[in-house]
Amino acid sequence: MSYNQQKTISCQRYTSVPGSPYNISTDNKGVLKAVLHGAYSFNNQTNDAFLFKPSAIEKAERQLVKGFKYILEVDLSRTVCLKKGHKEADLANCKFQPDGLLQQTFHCDFEVWTMPWLRFMKTTYFVCSPSDRPSTSS
């Protein structure tokens, strides 16, 4: 194999365009922070009496911009924690609603922009619609 053939093969390995979104693990620390931030935004925008928290992360992408933009597909499910008098930082301690009338899940698309060196995070876009999927974890 000649030098030119090796060069062509190594260039073909990279399929994403610089600056375009790329898939990232749903377990990534930055993804998890962005998902929580999106959940806080959702909770601040709803009139529901209960807090919602992530029950599933379906898809996560990251884009290098001035910082990072996380593009997320997330399921948010209603918890047993009432909004009134509850600190959202305690979402980890909130259990999901049991099977019944109060159980509800939304499928959401979020975009969260972060500049970690400035400790800045902002939900720039979210759209949620009711889902028929029940929450699956506690």
From TrEMBL:
Pfam families: Cystatin. GO terms for biological process: immune response; negative regulation of microglial cell activation; positive regulation of myelination. Gene3D superfamilies: 3.10.450.10. It comes from the Eukaryota. One of its GO terms (cellular component) is extracellular space. Belongs to the cystatin family. This is Cystatin F. The lineage of its organism: Eukaryota, Metazoa, Chordata, Craniata, Vertebrata.
